[in-house]
Every structure is written in structure tokens, then in C-alpha cells.
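From the pipeline queue, job 12 of 40. The input is one protein chain; the requested action is below.

Action: predict structure.
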Amino acid sequence: MVELLVVISIIGILATLVLANYNAARSRARDTQRKSDLKQYQTAIENYATNNNGLYFSYKSGEILSSVCGDLDITICPEDPHFDIDTGEPTYKYITPDGGADGTPSATDYVIWADMESSDNYWVYCSSGGAGESSDPHSSGNCPALD
């Protein structure tokens, strides 16, 4: 009887450890998906600039990336893997520090970012080629300091 209780308690401890790590692993997997989605957007944005004399479409405030899929000629827009439809807050955003605010091809730089789930930071891609984590990706539209 004692051996049975020891085995059951060991199984309980192992199950607790597995479940605790499972949620963290899912969070990291969603962050990896976000990075991949942003890279796809970056490629589409660079292709757009190639077709528009090196200029990016302009938005001076944090524009939702899925709303500019038409500008990028993307048929299926990547969406956040953990998008909360109740709050309606998407995590993929785009901003330009220069140019207009109407989506016309007039900007020379851009920043795209996503809120990361496993940290309190953002994952950022810049037109300058920079990529990495930052605590403030969009205050000016210029590429922030990246970790």
C-alpha cells in the first residue's frame, strides 16, 4: 500500500511539472509564430517598396498590419496566434516616421512590431534591417534600440 502511494505521489509531481512547462512552451511557440508572421510582412513591405521607387506606404500612427494587406497585395494576412477577439487589440502594427498618413507610397523608413507574450517586450523589424526585442518600438516611428 505504501509503495502504491509513493508511485501515485511521484506521478502527481511529474504531472504538475509537465503542466507548468506546457503553458510556457505554448507561449514561446506563439511568440515564434509572431516573429515568423512579422518576417512575412517585412518581405511584403520590401517588395512593395521595390515596386514604388523605394518608398513605403505611410502611416504616422500605429496602423494594424492586417488592414494594409490590400496595399501589400497579400491574399491571406497573418493574424496573431493568440488574438483576443473580446478586446479587439491586434498585436501586429506598422508605423512610419516620415511621409503622409494616408497609406500612399511616400515614407522612407518603417517599423513593424508585435507584442510578445513570454516577455513584456515587443519584437521589432525595421526598414534599416534591424530586428530584435525592444521595450518601446513605436514612440517615434524610428528604429528603437534593440536587444
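Job complete. The chain has one domain: 2-134.
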